[in-house]
Design a protein that fits this description.
Small Protein B, Chain: A, seven-stranded antiparallel beta sheet, two-stranded antiparallel ribbon, 4 helices, about 35% strand
Length: about 160
């Protein structure tokens, strides 16, 4: 996991995304959130497992991210999986729209963190892996670990 610093506080990581997708490019985007949602994020009550992003009507949207309702905010009805707007530059939106039009590419949230007090999400332009690709990557990772252990034991 990333180090917690004053400027970059990691909230959640989508570990499954790196296993199931090949990440081609990454982008940083802001999120439009309500007050109770920010409180829940600070408490770490968020899940990126089934989240994905789309470009619709010239705007970026994040679907399926689950932010648990904040208990102390009773006066506001909270939908944990509502669609949230992504804050991106116009050029980035155009680039992402072009990339997601290509067959097999999608936008996946990789990390959620605070940067200078603002909630940010790291989006990855990704291509899905087949089962045999996943197995190959796992085998390569295991082989790399074994080599590192052998080198370490020799020293």
């Amino acid at each position: 996991m990333a180090k917690k610093t004053k400027d970059n506080n990691l909230i959640a990581v989508n570990r499954r995304a790196r296993h199931e997708y090949d990440i081609i490019e990454t982008y940083e985007a802001g999120l439009v959130l309500t007050g109770p949602e920010v409180k829940s994020l600070r408490a770490g009550r968020v899940s990126l497992q089934e989240a994905f992003a789309r470009i619709d009507g010239g705007e970026g949207w994040l679907y399926g991210m689950h932010i648990a309702p904040y208990e102390q905010a009773h006066h506001i009805e909270q939908n944990p999986t509502r669609v949230r707007k992504l804050l991106l530059h116009k050029q980035e939106i155009g680039r992402l729209a072009g990339k997601t039009q290509q067959r097999g590419l999608t936008l996946i949230p990789l990390k959620l963190y605070f940067k200078r007090g603002y909630a940010k999400v790291e989006l990855g332009v990704a291509r899905g892996r087949k089962l045999h690709d996943k197995r190959r990557v796992l085998a390569e990772r295991d082989a790399r670990r074994e080599m590192e252990r052998a080198v370490k034991s020799r020293l």
